[in-house]
Design goal:
Order of helices and strands: HHHHHHHHHHH
Shape: elongated
CATH superfamily of one domain: Tetracycline Repressor, domain 2
Structural class: mainly alpha
Mean pLDDT: 86
Radius of gyration: 25 Å
CATH topology of one domain: Tetracycline Repressor, domain 2
Number of strands: 0
Number of helices: 11
Distance between the termini: 101 Å
Strand content: under 5%
CATH architecture of one domain: Orthogonal Bundle
Low-confidence stretches: 1-5, 223-233
Oligomer: single chain
Helix content: 55-70%
CATH class of one domain: Mainly Alpha
């Protein structure tokens, strides 16, 4: 009679998709993100030339040579600040448009784009915008090319909206020129906007819309109007 042996336990099913990151990999990614965040803040406050890798490492709670484990140079760290900022901005811009109704008119789309870009410029994680404005010259040609492609893709999303507004007579300027003016104006808010001032980001978006495309078109005659409410005494 043949002997029997206990069946070996079945192998667990193979996991589909990307393998989970190990704790060590997660820690590595977090340390890299910490360096990029602190570099963005210090580059904005002190300038690229006025900030050392030692400063960045200390701000991130690391040893002075740690940045070179993740980045080959301070210039590479600067490029990572800009590339990471643009990637995050593109993701948030796509989400802002996806949140609109499918049939949202171009004017509503433009407001969503403006409001989101103001958040990019003035909200959390916005240090990369002034860094891009003032430290662009420091990048290598290859780094500038890579970031320029991100920037062009981000701004290209605005063009169909601006062209539709132009065709409808709501945007008088040439759409390409209008895009340059709009981004110049919005990006410059980092120099003068005060978070604790009289204007909120929503107010600022409203003012920008008034500047770029004027007041909302009047309702056609006979359109339904909301009945005004009478305050109770």
């Amino acid at each position: 009679m043949a002997s029997t042996s206990p069946a070996s336990p079945a192998a667990p099913p193979a996991r589909r998709g990307r393998p989970r990151k190990s704790a060590e990999e997660r820690d590595e990614n977090q340390r890299r993100a910490d360096l990029v965040r602190e570099a963005a803040r210090l580059f904005r406050q002190q300038g690229f030339d006025g900030t050392s890798t030692r400063d960045i490492a200390a701000a991130a709670g690391m040893q002075s040579g740690s940045p070179f484990y993740y980045f080959e140079s301070k210039s590479a760290l600067l490029a990572a600040v800009m590339q990471g900022g643009m990637a995050d901005a593109a993701t948030r811009q796509a989400q802002a448009l996806q949140a609109l109704d499918d049939n949202a008119p171009p004017r509503e789309q433009l407001r969503a784009l403006i409001r989101q870009h103001l958040q990019v410029c003035l909200g959390k994680g916005s240090d990369f915008i002034p860094v891009m404005l003032y430290e662009w010259r420091v990048l290598t040609p290859a780094q500038r090319g890579a970031i320029a492609r991100q920037k062009d893709a981000y701004e290209a999303t605005w063009m169909p909206v601006l062209e539709a507004l132009h065709q409808a007579g709501q945007l008088q300027a040439d759409p390409q020129v209008a895009r340059l003016f709009i981004f110049g104006a919005l990006n410059w808010t980092v120099q003068w906007f005060k978070p604790k001032g009289a204007l909120s980001l929503d107010d600022l978006a409203t003012q920008a819309m008034q500047l770029f495309v004027g007041a909302s078109p009047k309702r056609p005659a006979g359109a339904a109007r909301r009945r005004p409410t009478t305050p109770h005494s």
